[in-house]
């Protein structure tokens, strides 16, 4: 039955579709149409996998009939089906948006290569999410990374090449750390299958080699997810990439990397080793607090709004790592919920900036004066995403911040609660700078009149903006998925500090 092949189709469809997109390099519109169709197919497969997981539990798919741990295995459970929905859902919105945006920002002869790269990135991210063994996760991580470097380099600003190269260097260092960690685990256990690793690592006790492997993996994954202070590649990458690439990467790539961190910390090494032996929470919590406060303040002083949103993303990653570092079910639920919510809010904000860039050619705050009247739908969507970043009630940002605060209160960590509230006030200030420029300052005299963005940009933008409100007012679906995954990861373990 086709339904039994869904885990393979989730990755194979975009992976095999990418070469066909490249072969259509003389017909970029056909290349885009194929890529869009495949992104919708991936989203449909993710929804069907969600239904299967909710009805029948964890799905295990062995390629070629070779059962794990000998063969390659895909595993779909309560945790990664949430990430599948995030990645494929964002792709299903950004791919239709990309055609109009790409016409303005990328040369025609490079457009098919751009859509090919987006599909490869999508395939890699989806594969990372459901890979059941550590080595294939690494391979798929590199597929997504290499395609991301390509997309960033296509930005029309010459600094895009520098940003791409910087990301390449940092990403390669991160990948090297990850493969060293995986190699050490293989030498210690003789297996690469994640479930097998999870059963064999406890037998190693507190061996120095397993601790070294853990350190390499945490550092490498930290580079990939832009954990403070390993985030230096991210601001330039987001700021100078083409608008469609910025939106797609910002809403998906770092979320998948956070998922990988969660998978290694909780599922492979286990709660006891990660938090009682290695005490990783005492790395995550201070680093997260610094990230939340410092990068929020840095965002206040940015002139380029895409760069401002990039620094905001580092702060939001801090919220996720903080939730992991709380070492309770509520905190982990908040981290997983914020994976979902941040994808919606940051996707909407970057799509709004893409629409602005389409009309005025840049995203500098000084160029935004008067756009509230001339691009009312675009700027209204930006305001919705901005309110979600701040954490205003009835938006997705409020829900995950509220759950995170509850997790901090459970531990009695009131200073952490204060940090979250102060960072929300700082976020309000940098979002307000844009609102003030757009709505309260007139267009400069002699500036040409600007019209609203075309419907092909506004419809995807407002789908994400509306999702910020819908899942903020009705958070039951996302909350249940996050809580179910968090409880499964902790597995009723009692952790002492």
Can you tell me about this structure?
- The chain has helices at residues 6-23, 28-56, 78-105, 108-130, 134-153, 159-189, 194-200, 208-224, 234-240, 243-268, 270-277, 281-300, 305-325, 329-360, 371-374, 376-390, 396-410, 414-440, 455-473, 476-490, and strands at residues 59-62, 73-76.
- It is an all-alpha fold and 497 residues long.
- It has a domain at 281-491.
- It is globular, with a radius of gyration of 22 Å.
- The model is unreliable at 492-497 (pLDDT under 50).
Topology:
Layout: H1 6-23, H2 28-56, E1 59-62, E2 73-76, H3 78-105, H4 108-130, H5 134-153, H6 159-189, H7 194-200, H8 208-224, H9 234-240, H10 243-268, H11 270-277, H12 281-300, H13 305-325, H14 329-360, H15 371-374, H16 376-390, H17 396-410, H18 414-440, H19 455-473, H20 476-490
Antiparallel strand pairs: 1-2
Helix pairs in contact: 1-2, 1-4, 2-3, 2-4, 3-4, 3-10, 3-14, 3-19, 4-5, 4-10, 5-6, 5-10, 6-8, 6-9, 8-10, 9-10, 9-13, 10-11, 10-13, 10-14, 12-13, 12-18, 13-14, 13-18, 14-16, 14-17, 14-19, 14-20, 16-18, 16-19, 17-18, 17-19
Search tags:
globular; mainly alpha; about 500 residues
The pLDDT mean sits at 87
Number of helices: 20
Shape: globular
Order of helices and strands: HHEEHHHHHHHHHHHHHHHHHH
Low-pLDDT stretches: 492-497
Roughly how much helix do the residues carry, as a percent range? over 70%
Radius of gyration: 22 Å
**How do the strands line up in the largest sheet?**
1-2
């Amino acid at each position: 039955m086709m339904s039994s092949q869904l885990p393979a189709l989730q990755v194979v469809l975009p992976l095999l579709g990418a070469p066909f997109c490249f072969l259509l390099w003389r017909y970029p519109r056909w290349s885009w149409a194929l890529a869009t169709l495949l992104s919708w197919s991936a989203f449909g497969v993710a929804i069907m996998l969600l239904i299967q997981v909710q009805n029948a539990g964890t799905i295990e798919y062995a390629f070629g009939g070779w059962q794990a741990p000998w063969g390659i295995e895909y595993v779909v459970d309560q945790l990664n089906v949430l990430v599948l929905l995030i990645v494929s859902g964002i792709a299903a919105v950004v791919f239709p948006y990309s055609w109009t945006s790409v016409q303005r920002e990328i040369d025609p002869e490079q457009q098919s290569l751009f859509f090919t790269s987006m599909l490869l990135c999508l395939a890699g991210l989806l594969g990372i999410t459901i890979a059941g063994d550590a080595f294939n996760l690494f391979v798929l991580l590199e597929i997504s990374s290499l395609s991301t470097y390509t997309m960033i380099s296509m930005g029309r600003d010459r600094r895009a090449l520098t940003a791409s190269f910087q990301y390449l260097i940092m990403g390669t260092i991160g990948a090297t750390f990850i493969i060293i960690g995986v190699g050490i685990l293989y030498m210690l256990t003789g297996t690469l299958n994640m479930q097998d690793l999870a059963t064999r690592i406890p037998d190693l006790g507190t061996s120095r080699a397993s601790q070294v492997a853990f350190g390499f993996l945490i550092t490498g994954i930290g580079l990939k997810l832009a954990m403070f202070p390993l985030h230096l590649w991210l601001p330039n990458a987001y700021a100078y990439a083409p608008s469609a690439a910025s939106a797609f990467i910002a809403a998906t790539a770092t979320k998948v990397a956070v998922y990988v961190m969660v998978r290694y910390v909780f599922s492979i090494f286990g709660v006891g080793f990660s938090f009682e032996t290695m005490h990783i929470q005492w790395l995550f919590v201070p680093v997260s607090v610094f990230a939340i406060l410092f990068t929020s303040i840095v965002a206040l002083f940015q002139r380029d709004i895409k760069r401002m949103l990039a620094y905001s993303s580092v702060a939001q990653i801090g919220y996720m790592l903080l939730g992991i570092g709380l070492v309770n079910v509520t905190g982990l639920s908040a981290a997983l919920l914020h994976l979902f919510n941040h994808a919606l809010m940051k996707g909407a904000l970057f799509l709004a900036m893409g629409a602005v860039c389409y009309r005025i050619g840049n995203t500098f705050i000084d160029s935004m004066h008067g756009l509230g009247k001339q691009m009312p739908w675009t700027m209204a969507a930006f305001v919705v995403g901005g309110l979600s970043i701040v954490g205003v009630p009835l938006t997705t940002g409020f829900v995950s911040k509220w759950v995170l605060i509850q997790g901090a209160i459970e531990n009695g960590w009131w200073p952490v609660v204060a940090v979250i509230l102060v960072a929300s006030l700082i976020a309000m200030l940098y979002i307000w700078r844009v609102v003030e420029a757009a709505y309260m300052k007139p267009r400069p005299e002699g500036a040409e009149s600007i019209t609203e963005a075309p419907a092909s940009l506004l419809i995807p933008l407002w789908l994400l903006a509306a999702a910020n409100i819908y899942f903020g007012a009705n958070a039951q679906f996302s909350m249940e998925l996050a809580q179910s995954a968090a409880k499964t990861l902790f597995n009723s373990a009692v952790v002492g500090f």
